[in-house]
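Sample 3 of the quickstart, ligand protoporphyrin IX containing FE:
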Amino acid sequence: MSTVSDPALPLRYPFPPGELGTPPPVLEWARKHRPVCPVRLPSGTRVWMATRKDDITRILTDARFSRDLVHEGAPRFVGEDFTSMAGGIFNLDPPDHNRVRHVISRFYTRGGVETYRPMVRRHADRLLDAMAEGLNPADLVPAYAAPLPLAVSSEILRVPVEQREKYHSFFRTQTNLAVSPQEVAAATEAVIEFTGEVVEAKRRTNTAGRAEGPIEALIEAVAEDEISETELQGTVAYLFVTGSEPLVSPLGTGVVTLLTHPPALRDCLDDPALWPKAVEEILRYHHNGVLGMPRVATEDVRLHDVTIAKGDRVCTPMLGATWDPAHYRNPAKFNIHRRTDGTATFGAGPHFCLGASLSRMFLHTAYQALFTRFPTLLLAVSEHDIPWELDLFFTKPAVLPVAWDPDSP
Ligand code: HEM
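Result:
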């Protein structure tokens, strides 16, 4: 782990990343020296950043920190992004939050997501067949890491992939830290419009009223007065934002990490029962969103030597938690045999990631399919020449050239 000398405060986000997609070294500095550290976002907004796992858990489970960001002056990274969308599960505090989450949670339980596993495998095999037929070396991002999550999430949400692809650039702009606030706001408008079209089309065609997927369940809940139309639209829009992009990052970063840690990869190939352990360690090692979503204090809260005043904004980078040496021995070491798991990467409290079980099942299936099909896979460039996307919420390789022995079984 590299170290940084005392930086100027407030820190400026985005932070320079660590090597090979690992956490920005400044998180380690902050955890040691300023556990509640002032940070300036690209929008100019100032937030407090907590980096110790215990503090992060405390904030995420403390009702005095609100996730309702649908108001004038709410903290934004750049501009009016998805955190500004009214009614979404993401932006609700309990008890409204529980009411909306309850409508869709059954589609994302551990048992529920197992029903998707054969579908994930089918899409993985289809993409890997095409890769085997194509160029060698290949860029794994367009060949596998990007299309697989999109195909899977489109099936779960029961929305044609071509329709989703049309709006992909808007999703990307919403999570870009280097564009203008106007571009972000326009992308959010486009997502809201897209969501409205999808909901309307489903209402037209699903006349049997069967809730076969999460969007249908939300539509039915409106019909039964369980949730409002705004909650439906906001939550569907958020399912589009979260559904696929957060999986592109760990798929790409995980492959880089496994290829640069051959003993871990060999262990998984020799004993496939180890894949879930490898998934946990990749999730711990590479959270894909660096700073986490902001919260607003509804009362003064004292934490270490700082008073977080009512109205102050707080961010909780999950990488702070999953690299906290008080909880993970030698956190910079990638070790698939750890006893501790990667749960902290998915947050804590009422907003704990709805897609946690889905992500675990998806990554397990996707890594295993890839490396079983291409056991000789290797990086086609030096790991230090892999370009990383640095302007997005999500850390991921922009290009991932890989090669394999075509004659290997
Ligand atoms: C490895 C990939 C993923 C990671 C690391 C991740 C991480 C997180 C984290 C940290 C939160 C909590 C945010 C907060 O409290 O401020 C969250 C919330 C959420 N995630 Fe994920 N996520 C991932 C994949 C997914 C996927 C595939 C879905 C698809 C359904 C998803 C859906 C959601 C939703 C709907 C919420 C909001 C839940 C709520 O507000 O009740 N996530 N995620």
